Amino acid sequence: MAAFGTTTFGASSSTAAQYNPNKDAELVSPPTDSISSLHFSPTSNFLTVTSWDNQVRCYEVQPNGQSQPKAAFAHGAPVLCSAWSSDGSKVFSAGCDKEAKVWDLASNSQQTIAKHDAPIRHMQFFNNMLVTGSWDKTLKYWDLRQPNPLHTQTLPERVYGMDVRAPLLVVGLANRRIQIFHLSNPAVVVKELESPLKFQTRCITCFPDSTGYLVGSIEGRVAVHHVDDSLQSKNFTFKCHRDQANGDGIWAVNSIEFHPVHGTFVTAGSDGQYNFWDKDSKQRLKAMARGSLPIPCASYNKEGSIYAYAACYDWSEGHAKHNPATAKNYVLLHQPQDTEVKSRSRQTSGRR
Q: Is 50 exceeded by the pLDDT of residue 7?
């Protein structure tokens, strides 16, 4: 397929579009409806993109930012989440059709491997096992060789956020409760607590060393939280994705991604901005220019040399604010600089 409209890192026009003020490279042939998840392969620069047009798309991204669509397939309803197998040979996806599918890229074949009684909002793959979190208030663990789940964990509410960093699994629920599991015994809740944030959970991301997790909320705030009670003194929260010039400008934190090499992280929000942070020195490393479209999801590639993020309507203002005739959907590719992702000592006169 020809890569029409291809851009590369540093090759954008001198006048940046409103949706792309940082002049990042653009993924060619993006989805035709809002984008729900992005995930790079753990072994290569193949990128999967899921969307509300029922599609799961796979792209190849070159180190210079050029991209090419490779393949796609459709679910029966909007797709909400995706994940890769550890060897990069398979893609898992799920959503509003209440089914999870596996896509074998070599054979270009798909099959249903999991089912719930309500839409599946999140999924993770680890140790040859798939875990799915649904609005039917369950987590289910699947061995791909068996038709029935190995374990079904009943939850008190719908799944709004979930992440795995073995052996840690953290799930955020619709009632602002957070449940923590150890994957060696997934039937036992190791710890349950109320979110450190006062408003609805939007995303959860585990620390790379699995000692804790980050929680983002709809109220422009992030909590840094440790699992071990002896480390509770290191917990803190901070504000982000807010318009300092406008007191009413408070936006949801939709995505938090740790850099795979340096251990810093980047937040992306409904304000159309992404910012780089260092939790250890408690400072913001770089604030990027704010775009005109929300950022609902994002992903680093395995080396951390490409940060992919969606720019599109994120449904935070409901159906009434969405006009299919004029809606635009983009996936942008940012090349992180050392000043954005490398940890540095906190300056005494600096601010977060």
A: yes
Name the nearest CA neighbour of 76 among 57, 102, 55, 92. 55
Residue pair 56/79 in contact by the 8 Å Cβ criterion: yes
Burial of 21 (0-12, 13-18, 19+ CB in 10 A): middle
Give the Cα separation of 212 and 230 in Å (integer).
12
Q: Does residue 244 contact residue 201 with C-beta atoms inside 8 Å?
A: no
DSSP 334-351: E---HHHHS--PPPTT--
**Residue from 296, 331, 311 nearest 81 by CA:** 296
pLDDT at 50 over 90: yes
What tens digit of pLDDT does each residue of 159-176 get? 999 999 999 999 999 999
Q: How confident is the model at residue 238 (pLDDT cuts 50, 70, 90)?
A: very high
What is the number of helices (H) and of strands (E) in the chain?
Answer: 1, 28
**What Cα–Cα distance (Å) separates residue 89 from each residue in 29, 245, 246?**
23, 47, 47
**DSSP 8-state class, residue 288:** P
In this structure, the number of other CB atoms found within 10 A of the CB of residue 65 comes to 22
